[in-house]
Amino acid sequence: MAAEPSRGALFIDRDGTIIADAHYLADPSGVRLLRDAVAAVSLANRAQVPVVIVTNQSGIARGLITEAQYQAVRDRTVALLQAGGAEVLTTYHCPHLAELTGACNCRKPALGMYEQASREHGFDLAQSAYIGDRWRDAQPALATGGLGILVPGAETPASDVDTAHRSTAPNIAVSHTLLDAVMLALTRLGVGDLPEHDARQNQFSNHHSSHRS
Questions:
Q1: Using CA atoms, how far apart are residues 8 and 141, in angstroms rounded to an integer?
Q2: What's the N-to-C CA distance of the chain in angstroms?
Q3: Are 7 and 191 in contact (CB under 8 A)?
Q4: Distance between CA 148 and CA 128 in Å, rounded?
Q5: How far apart are CA 30 and CA 61, in angstroms?
Q6: Across-strand partners of 129?
Q7: How far is residue 36 from each of residues 24, 105, 176, 200, measured CA to CA in Å?
Q8: What's the rounded mean pLDDT across residues 98-127?
């Protein structure tokens, strides 16, 4: 039975946001957590807000990685976060690529993975945040009414940054780091209990985030 939507979540991209984007990573020994990944996920944990990793993995459709290799990299990512005291509730991935496997409803920015998470865990998508280093990671907020936050990184196209900055939607923001993005999400959505120390720190962090109220 599907859970009744009752709480928000932080949907965070994997490659280029939590780990370095190694382009179709097949070897779990190559997983490298990005700076702030542990701190950002840990902050959400302290606020009692679920963190869900949501990732496009077209390398499976392209024949560059197997499902088993994806799962090994997934498990290594989760293990490294756990080693730092950060917990991820679950992960979802899209293995498709339209030109090879046909259209699907799960490849970001489509909502399939988020809707599945909502059914399985009772998330309110309108009270959730959509965070990542590509525009497609933040874009689902436009459909759900949640908060979309672009965190530009080394692989982020300039056009994605421009699109986010030019957006007139009040629920689109740009943050310099993943930690800033999580702080902003917790504050704006009010979906968790931001610890007092982190709430004070967020007063300073928000000066480094571009967002619209």
A1: 12
A2: 37
A3: yes
A4: 9
A5: 21
A6: 10, 147
A7: 22, 31, 11, 18
A8: 96
Query: Which comes out higher in pLDDT, residue 4 or 33?
Result: 33
| Residue reference for tokens 């046909």 | 102
Over the stretch 5-58, which tens digit does the pLDDT of each residue have?
579 999 999 999 999 999 999 999 999 999 999 999 999 999 999 999 999 999
Tens-place pLDDT, residues 153-194? 999 999 999 999 999 999 999 999 999 999 999 999 886 566
pLDDT at 93 over 50: yes
147-150 and 129-132 strand pairing? parallel
Catalytic amino acids? 13, 15
Q: What is the dihedral of CA 44, 46, 19, 27, to 10 degrees?
A: -120
| Alpha helices per DSSP H over the chain | 37-46, 58-61, 67-83, 98-101, 112-121, 135-138, 140-144, 158-166, 178-189, 196-205
Cα separation, 116 vs 133, in Å, equals 22
